[in-house]
Amino acid sequence: xxxxxxxxxxLVGTKVVSDALICGHDGNVWATSPKLKATPQELKKVIxxxxxxxxxxxxxxxxxxxxxxxxxxxxxxxxxxxxxxGLHIMKTTQAVIVSRYEEPTMPEQCAxxxxxxxxYFLSVGY
Length: 126
Fold this sequence. Notes:
Shape: globular
Number of helices: 4
Largest sheet: 7 strands, antiparallel
Number of strands: 7
Strand order of the largest sheet: 2-1-7-6-5-4-3
């Protein structure tokens, strides 16, 4: 299965996730939906700070030129929000999944879809 099919079928195809991308830990994008325009530099900065609550709380989360307010996270996950939209980001062994949702989707719905795919990636070594 191609990286793009994970975006199209398992994330955006669910109608829960509005936009998504999958990248490596270096920030280089492997696959993306058309409307999510994030640079490798933005992604690398986010990836380097996963688990660093103080930096994320102070600076927010910048993806696609949009600054989101950091809500919470772990050493694998970032949750962020801007207005009626938000991000759920999950870091796996070799990849990072960035999912963006918009109202009426609830943050928990996006988290479930994103983490289900992330758990699959972890189970196969990605």
